[in-house]
Amino acid sequence: MTGQKEEILGCDFEVRGKLPKEAFELFAVVQANTLGLRGFITQVSEEKFKGRLEGEGKVIDAFKKFILAASEFVQAIKEFIIKNLKVIKEYTYKTFEIKVERK
């Protein structure tokens, strides 16, 4: 008899808004690691962050809710978009981290 195991999902995400880079990235890393998510976040322009999330669907939803409800950022966030959500066979990241964009 096999136990019902939650599927691992992977998705890309974007957050738009006038957010303080270091503070927001660190906040996202702490939230993701606390929830057990893996992936990364990176700033791609002054008002846009993007990244990858890997974990259970309910945990990805919880991460989005935490980000949107954070009192220090709630006024600054314009939108949070999840794209390309699909089941993955295994994790491709060991943790959740800040990725520096190479220019």
Topology:
Layout: E1 8-17, H1 21-35, E2 38-45, E3 48-55, H2 57-69, E4 77-88, E5 96-98
Parallel strand pairs: 2-5
Antiparallel strand pairs: 1-3, 1-4, 2-3
Helix pairs in contact: 1-2
Description:
- By secondary structure, this protein is an alpha+beta fold.
- It has one domain (8-96): 2-Layer Sandwich (Alpha-Beta Plaits), CATH 3.30.70.100.
- It has two helices and five strands; from the N terminus they run E-H-E-E-H-E-E.
- A five-stranded mixed β-sheet has the order 4-1-3-2-5, with helices on one face.
- Strand 2 and strand 3 (48-55) form a beta hairpin.
- Helix 1 (21-35) packs antiparallel against helix 2 (57-69).
- It is globular, with a radius of gyration of 14 Å.
- The termini are far apart.
- The model has no long low-confidence stretch (mean pLDDT 92).
- InterPro entries: Acylphosphatase-like_dom, Acylphosphatase-like_dom_sf.
- Residues 10-100 form the Acylphosphatase-like domain.
